[in-house]
Amino acid sequence: MFCFFSLPNTGYLYSLKGGVELLSTYQYPEKVLEAVLTDFLLHVITKSALQCFTVRCAAVAARIEDPYIDTTMKACPPTSLEVCALRMQLFIGLRSVCVYGRHVILLSAADTETQEETERTTQRRGLELKEHTMLTGIFLAVGIDPANTPALESFLSRPFLSRKWTISSPKETSTVGHGWNLYVIDTVNPLTLYQEMVEYSQRYAETNLQAQSLRHLLSEAHLLLRASLLQTSGQQQNIVGDPATSLQTEADGPSEKETAVQTDIQELEEALRQNCAQLGDCFSRGSQKDCHLALPYYRMSGLSVTEIIARNRPIPKSTPSYGPGFLFYLKHYLIEETEQSLSQEGADEVIDIFSQSEPSELVSMCASPSMVNISPARTLRILQRLQDTAGVSVPLTITMATMMLLLDDLPQYTQLMERHAEMLLVYGFIEEPRLLLHGGGQHTHIRPTVLTRQLAKSQPGLLVAAIVALHENNKVQLEHADHIFKIHSCSHYGALYPWLTVLSPAHTISCQHQEALHKLQSLLCGPSLSVGSVMPLLERLSEETLWGFSLHLLCATRRGQYDRSIEKLLDRCPQAIIAYANHQLQDKHMVLWWQKLLPELCNRTRAAPDNSILLAALKETLVVVAMETSPTEFLELIPDDGTASYFLPHLLTCTQRHLLV
């Protein structure tokens, strides 16, 4: 919610979110008669002009709607961004302004009142009804019904409308009294206005890409697009929620209105991505103070890292230099654990960029999982130059040894690794763990590097010491360390999870297929096979059969998608849910018994009270919840519409256990 009020020379816009906050102050160049605030612009009129100013409503709304704004993931221009004037149109004798949709409605009058006109005020009052009818007819002629718009009704009922008026014409001019003029102005489409702003911004870009004016104009364009998206998305929700539209959609597919709104949203989203790329360019070359904003804006642009590198290449025949924002983005991208790898050409260009700009970051860049396609011989020459200028360091030595491994030069690899004592090498791995391990992030699996595989064969003691040190220094999780130790020490197959036997019993498929299924299930239950490596196979397997469903569920569980797995299992095979929960929902996942499984079972038994399988699963779940929660917590978990006699025995068990403890 926003509050705007205006004095003749100054206007004030306040946000009421979480308290009263002054967003913007508007200093008018001349005395203002009236002002109207919209989602996009502030429209004000003076006696001789209509002026438009930018507003900050979208900047506030964006932060309320999206919690990732102002993080490394997403950005938005600040609410404190100074407002600016966009347009001015000249008129004569403006008296009032009103906004309806994308129409700005103006009323003006030439100041030609005479003494005789003043004396006939009483007679003119009788014309009020006629004048109101004529104005209403004009609005209806342009497709606007004042009866549906309280603002227009108020506009038409104002006292000055009782004066005699005519639509001005060069041929017919009133000899006495005011010559009233009514203007209905179509505001510029937001996309069109955005394109005009982009074209205008090119003037700054041609002279100085770091100009504050360029950044300000692109920020204004960004807020304009955000406001348009918020408004258009709201229109889409209203259309979807309209019962008449829903019936038509079910019968004939999307209506013309739905299709048009969806097209508008797609065009606005594409324009927003382009704008984010332009803002990313600005911040990539900007000052050190704001350079971090290049990262979220480039992420929002949807551009690949290769495309962003191309946008930041130095101009030919100029001194090679890269902005701090671009380097910040590139370091952040290469530090993150992603499944995407740069091509050899791209990886080599990254090495060139950092060898020129920040040579101290070369080791970290070489260790990135995105740089696996790096040219080892070329990179080794650059690292040797770094060693000559900066001196010998343990991480640099290990990186050079890795390049020797990639070149299959084992004697040189051994010579480099023997340069330092094993304990110093361990410290080097602590400083840069990605020399040993890739992945292990939220969406990636752990992968040993080529160096790890070599150490497992030639120096297993050093590998064990390094992995243990990484764990003790919180550089690697225990399960990831355990995974590395099992690579060369145990079978690739694992014991089948107990719930799999319930989900896919032997009689459902042939013996031959049963054996193949068990092998694949066992591999997925084992320590070696990563989910990512079997995803291409699973994409070709249907979930329609229970055995196909079991493989998809295994992979979803391995990826940590427990909530989704519980829902799908209850949909397809609820008799397996307790076996699944007993095996999977343990330790740190124990809370899912009452945070996910219990609410799901309550909802489903409420809808199907005679389902014995669901009722049995609910009873078993309550037994576990009663053992793992306090009486107060258990009481809070009981649904409001639950039967007290059903839950009371479990509450009693929970209370007794709590007293014993």
UniProtKB/TrEMBL annotation:
<dbReference type="InterPro" id="IPR029437">
    <property type="entry name" value="HPS3_N"/>
</dbReference>
<dbReference type="InterPro" id="IPR017216">
    <property type="entry name" value="HPS3"/>
</dbReference>
<dbReference type="GO" id="GO:0005737">
    <property type="term" value="C:cytoplasm"/>
</dbReference>
<dbReference type="Pfam" id="PF14761">
    <property type="entry name" value="HPS3_N"/>
</dbReference>
<dbReference type="InterPro" id="IPR029438">
    <property type="entry name" value="HPS3_C"/>
</dbReference>
<protein>
    <submittedName>
        <fullName>Hermansky-Pudlak syndrome 3 protein</fullName>
    </submittedName>
</protein>
<feature type="domain" description="BLOC-2 complex member HPS3 C-terminal">
    <location>
        <begin position="487"/>
        <end position="658"/>
    </location>
</feature>
<feature type="domain" description="BLOC-2 complex member HPS3 N-terminal">
    <location>
        <begin position="1"/>
        <end position="125"/>
    </location>
</feature>
<dbReference type="Pfam" id="PF14763">
    <property type="entry name" value="HPS3_C"/>
</dbReference>
<feature type="domain" description="BLOC-2 complex member HPS3 C-terminal">
    <location>
        <begin position="192"/>
        <end position="486"/>
    </location>
</feature>
